[in-house]
Specification:
Elements (H helix, E strand, L loop, with lengths): L8 H11 L3 H7 L18 H18 L7 E5 L5 H9 L4 E6 L2 H10 L7 E6 L12 E6 L9 H11 E14 L4 H13 L15 H11 L2 E7 L1 H4 L1 H10 L9 H15 L3 E9 L5
Parallel strand pairs: 1-2, 1-4, 2-3, 4-5
Antiparallel strand pairs: 5-7, 6-7
The structure holds S-adenosylmethionine (SAM).
S-adenosylmethionine binds next to helix 4 and strand 2.
Length: 287
């Protein structure tokens, strides 16, 4: 298997914070490392507790889109510290849950934190979501929570997810989905950043895949579209929380890229140039 370079500065920072005993950081990002979902964004409190609840709710929204049920075999690709697997483990029984991540440091954390319960079985696997180390038709569900923009190739991931799903199985994911006409501008900005050999605070992220691209890809691969849900509005309080949390120990210059990138995503999201979407697909029962 080709070795993929792991370039995720935000995870380096989080892991350093854990090692230094930063309890607030551990509380905020020790389980989920993704945006929050607020059913009523006007009631967001901007506290760590409120953010954690919202991050947990985002996970629920995604696995609800995948119609997860007791007794299933599920792959969580790009599983972070195992928060989605932890949530499924707490809410379902007789599951076989597999968390896959390219970064073994995150898997070590997941392994320590998530203990199987309710007749569930949990496996942690190091690997690339675009080259899944599993046989055909091994899962009822595949999830990819806020990570597909890091994968080397969305097409390859979709083909792999299709291959490892059983007929009738579902893939559900969340992603930052730009308006089609805005894609060339993002691509230009990404090219500029690449030419400066700067992958930024959030690492290599491709946010140039519009909804039309997903629709074309799903049809090419053979998936039937199940859900296309715009939840941008519900995720917006995330930005105030991240900016406030980032500044909790005061400002310093080293945080500038993190602030600049978070502010940019906040702005393009508030202007609806980039939407936060939950997308779900079904592999047909008969092919
Ligand atoms: C924003 S985090 C989301 C983590 C987790 N899904 C969550 O919601 O807490 C993105 C994750 O994708 C993982 N990742 C990036 N590229 C990957 C790849 N090619 N294969 C598998 N995982 C990958 C990162 O290591 C990281 O855990």
């Amino acid at each position: 298997m080709t070795q993929l370079e792991i370039n995720l500065p935000y995870f380096d920072l989080i892991l350093r914070g854990f090692a230094d005993g930063d309890r607030d950081l551990e509380q905020a990002f020790g389980r989920h490392v993704h945006w929050g979902y607020w059913a009523d964004p006007s009631h967001a409190h901007n506290t760590v507790e409120d953010f954690c609840q919202a991050a947990e709710q985002l996970t629920h929204e995604i696995y609800t889109a995948a119609l997860v049920q007791d007794g299933q075999s599920l792959l969580d690709a790009g599983c972070g510290f195992g928060g989605t697997v932890a949530s499924l483990n707490e809410n379902f029984q007789n599951m076989t849950l597999t968390g896959l991540n390219i970064d073994e440091r995150q898997l070590e954390q997941a392994q320590q934190k998530v203990i199987a319960q309710g007749n569930n079985h949990i496996h942690w696997v190091e690997g690339n979501a675009c080259q899944l180390p599993f046989p055909d038709a091994s899962f009822d569900r595949v999830l990819a929570v806020e990570c597909i923009f890091h994968f080397p190739d969305r097409g390859q991931f979709f083909r792999e997810a299709f291959r490892v799903l059983k007929p009738g199985g579902y893939l559900a994911l969340s992603d930052f989905v730009p308006q089609g006409w805005f894609v060339p501008l993002i691509a230009l900005q990404a090219q500029l950043q690449n030419s400066l050999q700067n992958s930024g605070f959030y690492g290599r992220s491709d946010v140039t895949y519009a909804l039309e691209d997903y629709q074309r890809l799903a049809a090419e691969v053979g998936f039937q579209t199940h859900i296309e849900r715009d939840i941008t509005e519900n995720t917006l309080p995330t930005y105030d929380f991240l900016l406030k949390f980032g500044a909790r120990n005061g400002y310093d210059w080293s945080q500038l890229p993190a602030f600049a990138e978070t502010l940019t995503i906040a702005l393009v999201s508030r202007l609806w140039l980039v939407k936060y979407m939950i997308l779900a697909y079904q592999k047909p029962t008969f092919q």
